[in-house]
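#onboarding

Welcome to the new folks! Below is a worked example of what a typical request in this channel looks like: someone posts a single protein sequence, and someone else replies with the predicted structure as tokens. Don't worry about understanding the tokens yet, we'll cover that in week two.

Example request:
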Amino acid sequence: MNLDRDLDTDFLSVDADARVGDVIDLLGDSPPASVVVRETPAFGGRDDDEDDVFFVFDAGEVAAFADHRDALIGEMVAAQERAPAPVVETIAGGGVDWDLVTGGLLLRGGALEGLLVDAPPAARRSRGGGGGAAPEEPKAVGVAVDYAQSVALDTTFSVLIRLTGDLAGANVIPFTATKGDVVDVVVSPRSGFVVDGPAEAELKVSGEKDGQPLPIQVKLRATALGVGRVEIHVFRDRSPLGSLTITPEVVAEGAESGEHGTATAELEDAPPPEADLELLILEEMTADGRPQLRYLLSAPDEGLKLKPFGPVVLQSEPRQVFAEHFKEIEKLPLRDEQDRADAAERLEAIGSSLFRELLPDDLRTLLWSLRERIETVWIQTVEPFVPWELCRLEGVEDGAVVEGEFFCEAFALTRFVPGTGRHPTLRLSNIGLIVPDDSGLDNAKAEAEMVRKLAGDGRTVVDVPATYLEVRRALESGEHDGIHFCGHGTFPDRANPERAEIELEDHKSLKPNDIAGAVRNLGLAKPLVFLNACQAARQARGLTGVGGWASRLLDAGAGAFVGAHWEVDDERALAFATHFYERLDAGDTIAAAARDARMAIREGGDPTWLAYTVYGDPGATLA
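Example response:
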């Protein structure tokens, strides 16, 4: 971009506390095209730690305020509820593709340089209103990010997130859009940084052939030495378009700054969302290194889109806390009616405690108020620990605490890992059945027979010998769009999720790190994977990210995953699977099928009905 040509410097800049009469006098007989009003943090009682904001008026608009000459120009801004103009600051070393910038203001070193426009100033002032333009065809655009590869500790720098017409490279999320489409961007630091200011913003697709709107500028503060990690999630109409990950290095003060970096992108399908309520849960770190959860809630019928809540700072190590919860649940005695009543009460107490501890006050109040208007809930999160199904709604009515239902009881609920594929259509045309002969489970044969009876009407069920080599070969083939395992599962090392196991025959086992190499071909058929085994749904932080069966299988391309957080009763596990498949075949969504299956096996205080978790598109159905 030639800034001498495209930077409009024909404007008058004034502070918000200037009198309207003085501004009109400054405009004179040959006024400039625009008036820019700068509002400082102190004006109107704004917080002192906020940045200056700018408001742009046509000169003629200000002249129309002549009846209010003694008023402050900032008061006229407030009366009109005018939105601030977007601003971009130049950053050391470049990193901004100015050819993609139109509209807004340019700052250099904190000083207002000019208005960024998509044509020379004279042409912009003389532009007339043509008519009859044909509707634009959808075009390919992308979201990209510019950032410094290295930054000094305790300094703040800007990440610029922009729309681009250049779709080449791994750092772009491509999609098709028409003029006026809006994409929402959420920035979530995972390590090394905290957000300094707003972390959510919108980008609106321009109709201009050679330009896109001003980039989003999100400020990050470096808090820990080493390579950091920041995730940028992109949505349209609440549906995920994909994620970008950037990894700036935090260096000691005085170290040389690096060049601008390249992000890595993970794409997602983006069908129309099916959930009544969607909760994006971001796991981040505070400046002093403690984990925190930040929430963004969308509910279209309630007019909510990515409404922020929190953060909630976790005071204890979550891995240890939830491991102890699971251990307690597994040891609940169920010998007689009194034991079962006590167990049911204890489960409710755990659920209420999780709801109160993990969710901020205003989010708890909102969920309680929406509970009877919401049917389907979609939880999108990368944190590996929390059994969100177990959270129990609670509210206050007439000054008294009122208990509600567990999340998975009140709602048809599924989970989702941002950055993995979303699959609204599932197929069970070729099910691979894995049942070790020597598991010793009383109902293993009955469960195998139940799955075999799903065959017919174009569906086949293939018995896969439950040996290590045969299971790997079956997964490598990529032929099975359904995979069902019935047997034992363990999660022996809470610090290493890759040591989780499902037990095969002859004392052999399959581990999550076996889902590597050619075994990842299992994702070719986008299978529904059901591991009906104890502890198969547990996740934890691994060597390079979240580990465990769900994350490994979904990353390989599985269309959905079903498993249990803790040990389950053999008989009820069979009943859950039976009802789940029946409801899918009847046309239910995967979220509704799971809830129906839960309710069918709920009995006494046995916790099996709460153990299961489902990862996938909540509206997914069988083709």
